[in-house]
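sorry to bug you again but im stuck and you know this stuff better than me. what follows is a protein written twice so to speak, once as letters and once as structure tokens for the fold. id like you to explain what the token line says about the fold, in plain words if possible. anything you notice is useful, everything is just below.
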Amino acid sequence: MFQFIKGDLSNKDGALMMQGERFILVPVGFISYLQKGIENIAGPDGTYVMMTEAAQMSGRDVSQTVLALAQGLPFEQQVQLFLRMNSAIGWGKYEVEELTMEPFKLVVKHINSYVGDVYEGKADGPRCFLSVGTKDLYESLLKAAGRDIKLKVTETLCVAKGDKHCQLTFEEDAL
């Protein structure tokens, strides 16, 4: 998978680009300590709002990259491509545990999440706020597949609070 991504990367004046999207390679500590620092100031709820909002905005952009790379592939394969891309650039390993289209439900197992490096199993709740924020990416992929629905996401397991891995469930939001 890394060869696939590497073949699609270019460097333009110091900017790492893939399908028109700019990427920055940073140590995991930067992201996890940034999140922890925000939490020290804004608390878990404020951090959740800030980090998921940032991930949602990014997810809308990244979904266009995924759609460009996965042109013509069914939704299920687009999801797998996105998860493999994340694994290839160091976010951890992802496994789809369940995927149903009607009603929509996606359960993703996340092994070796970045939050484990900082929270060491001592958080009082889930902390994969950036992964929770990928719901907008999935909504964009679903919309491109003809399903214009809103999702809700629940993080049921998280290494930050001592679980062996993280687990996120994305479901159609009945509103």
The beta strands are 9-12, 15-18, 21-23, 93-101, 104-111, 151-157, 166-172. Residues 2-172 form a domain with the Muramoyl-pentapeptide Carboxypeptidase; domain 2 fold (CATH 3.30.1380.20).
